[in-house]
Design goal:
This protein has about 325 residues and is α/β, with parallel strands linked by helices. The chain contains ten helices and ten strands. Helix 1 runs parallel beside helix 2 and helix 3 runs parallel beside helix 4.
Length: about 325
C-alpha cells in the first residue's frame, strides 16, 4: 500500500475584505464534498503575509471548520538579523492572541514561505538582506521552509527533495544543498527544506537569461507545481507530481505532493472553487484513494512535517497516525 500526502501551500496575500469573504463563503461549499481516506476535506495552508487581526479572525473560521491552518509568508527587504528577529517575535506575539502560531500545548512555532522566493538572501538585499536567515528562523521557532521550487538563482541545486540545510552565516543561499531526511537517521542542520515536486522546465535560454526581470511571467509559466489561472491541475500534471516521488529516504511508500498558488488573487479563484478544483480533487480521489494500491491524505504544512518526522523516527504503516507527531495543532483550530 502506498500513501499520498497532499498539501497546498498558498502564498496568501489578501488585499480586500471582499477577497476574504469570498474564501470563507466559497471554500467549504466547493471543497466540503471531497474527502481523503479518513474523510477529511482538502486541507489548505494559508501562508499569510501581514498582521491584520481581522484577517486572522476571518481565516480562523476556516481553521476551526477543519479546512486548514495559517502559517507565515515573509516579505522583507534590506533587513538585518536583529530586525528579522524582532519582526518574527512580534508576529508570534500578535498572532498568538488569535490562537495562531501557538499550539494547544503552548509551543510557539511556524512554517515559512519566503516572499519573492528569496530565502537566505538568495535574490539579494532588496528581497531579504539576511545571510544568516536559516539560523534566525531556527532560533525563532520555524520548523520548516516550504518556499520551493523557485526559478532562476533562487532555485536550490537539490530538487524534489525534503532535506536539512546548514547555514553559512557569511554567505547567501545556504539552502542550495543539504542532507536528505532519512528514516532512522537523526536530524541535522539548521532548517528542513520541504520542496514540491515541480521543476523549472521548458524555459528557452533567452527567457532564463532575463528571468530576474520577468518574475511574474516566470512564476506563472514555468513552475510546474503551481496551480493558478494559467496552470490548471490537469490529470497529467497531477500524475507527474506523484511520479516525482518526493519522499523521505527509506520510506518511499509515503509520497508527498506540495503544490502552491496565490489564492487571494481573484483571477485564481477558478483553481479553488470551480471546475478546476473539481478536476483536481476528483482525480486524487479516483486515482490515489482506491484503498488497495493508494490511500490519500490531505494535510496542512504542519501535519506533513509531522509525518516526515515520524518517517525519520522509523515509523511506517498508515501516516494518518502521525499528523500531530511532534507539533500539536494550533489553538485557533480548536
Amino acid at each position: 500500500m502506498r500513501h499520498l500526502i497532499f498539501l497546498f501551500a498558498d502564498h496568501f496575500e489578501p488585499r480586500s475584505s471582499e477577497a476574504l469573504e469570498e474564501w470563507v463563503r466559497n471554500y467549504p461549499q466547493a471543497l466540503g464534498r471531497f474527502g481523503d481516506a479518513s474523510g477529511r476535506p482538502p486541507r489548505h495552508t494559508w501562508f499569510y503575509d501581514e498582521d491584520d487581526p481581522a484577517v486572522l479572525e476571518i481565516m480562523g473560521r476556516l481553521c476551526r471548520q477543519g479546512f486548514g491552518e495559517i502559517e507565515v509568508h515573509l516579505h522583507h527587504s534590506f533587513d538585518t538579523a536583529e530586525g528579522l528577529r524582532r519582526r518574527l517575535e512580534e508576529r508570534k506575539r500578535r498572532w498568538g492572541e488569535q490562537g495562531a502560531l501557538i499550539t494547544t500545548d503552548g509551543r510557539r512555532t511556524f512554517g515559512l514561505v519566503h516572499g519573492k522566493w528569496s530565502l537566505d538572501n538568495s535574490r539579494g538585499d532588496a528581497h531579504c538582506g539576511v545571510n544568516n536567515e536559516l539560523t534566525v528562523l531556527r532560533e525563532a521557532g520555524c520548523y520548516a521552509d516550504f518556499t520551493f521550487p523557485a526559478w532562476g538563482r533562487m532555485q536550490p541545486a537539490r530538487k524534489r527533495s525534503i532535506y536539512y540545510a546548514t547555514d553559512d552565516p557569511a554567505a547567501p543561499k545556504s539552502y542550495d544543498d543539504g542532507v536528505p531526511v532519512e528514516a532512522g537517521r537523526a536530524a541535522s542542520g539548521d532548517l528542513m527544506i520541504f520542496e514540491g515536486p515541480g521543476r523549472v522546465s521548458g524555459v528557452p535560454r533567452s527567457f532564463a537569461r532575463c528571468g530576474s526581470s520577468l518574475p511574474w511571467l516566470m512564476d506563472r509559466l514555468f513552475l510546474t507545481c503551481a496551480v493558478d489561472a494559467h496552470l490548471p491541475p490537469t490529470h497529467s500534471r497531477v500524475d507527474r507530481w506523484v511520479n516525482a516521488q518526493v519522499s523521505v529516504k527509506g520510506r518511499p511508500e509515503w509520497v508527498f505532493v506540495k503544490v502552491h498558488s496565490h489564492g487571494a488573487l481573484a483571477e485564481n479563484y477558478e483553481s479553488y472553487f470551480a471546475e478546476w478544483s473539481a478536476m483536481l480533487h476528483s482525480h486524487l480521489s479516483s486515482r490515489y484513494n482506491d484503498g488497495k494500491s493508494w490511500r490519500l491524505h490531505y494535510a496542512t504544512a504542519r501535519e506533513a512535517y509531522n509525518i516526515v518526522k515520524a518517517a525519520e523516527a522509523g515509523h511506517s504503516g498508515d501516516p494518518e497516525e502521525y499528523r500531530d507527531f511532534v507539533i500539536k495543532p494550533y489553538q485557533n483550530t480548536r
